[in-house]
């Protein structure tokens, strides 16, 4: 029903807008808003909230009046995000310095959030790191364990401690995976593997939970953040890929979670890579090799 509302709405706004159309669009927008979850007064826990997508997710939820529990390792950054989120409209914000790669930190984060607010409605598993190197150049495979512990296990542990509370509230998990989970990107083998594992983990949980806990799996393409600077540009040669603004991405994610979507591919044009993966994976692999390996090594010779 929501999909047909949205399609109808898109068709209407594509037409020349006379007053009748404008009125109908307004009615449909109101209908749409009625079907969307309102998060005012609800409790949202976000990992990786000290910068980038997590920071802007905090602001987006704050604008909608949600109470926030924020986690990351950099305490002073969390303090600044918490202050701004309160100014933007959140009734109450707490922050808990947390290293999601440590099980005990994940448990403490969820417990502190629930002890403080008495409930948990959304858990946003967003914390993540990237490592950029050709697999053959990775001297110590054990160095990559930190990446898996953060991107995959960090989300698994936070989810495990949050489940009883989310069951009570019939809440939602928002899992920030990546387009890298299906689109093979050279120099990011472990990052891609961690995101593919995450997507598969959430899909399996969805089958286990039924309608008890909602799950929105988000697969962003390139988004402006600390992660998409530095090595991402210089080593991964991703400079020609257009990055979406962090604010737009965060708004799309919260809209999607509130609509109760199962998946969000953001920005939407990156869906083409999913189609290519299904219909002609060889073409996608050839392009990845040509654009990120062959072309760049020719340039440096
Ligand atoms: N930017 C993109 O193009 C893009 C594309 C697809 C998916 N993503 C995903 O989006 C998510 C957010 O990344 P971003 O782009 O916003 O990058 P970012 O600005 O680097 O943010 C990463 C966040 O994760 C936190 N973090 C890292 N390790 C942590 C740990 N061990 N414990 C707790 N928090 C930790 C960081 O905070 P501290 O350093 O303070 O701990 C920071 O708040 C990641 O999962 C990433 O994989 C990003």
TrEMBL record:
Primary location: membrane
Compartment list: Membrane
One Gene Ontology MF term: oxidoreductase activity
Keywords (A to Z) from UniProt: NADP, Oxidoreductase, Signal-anchor, Transmembrane
Entry annotated with the keyword Transmembrane: yes
UniProt keyword Phosphoprotein present: no
Topology of the protein relative to the lipid bilayer: Single-pass type II membrane protein
GO CC term (a single one): membrane
Pfam families: adh_short
Family membership noted in the UniProt record: Belongs to the short-chain dehydrogenases/reductases (SDR) family.
Name by which UniProt lists this protein: Uncharacterized protein
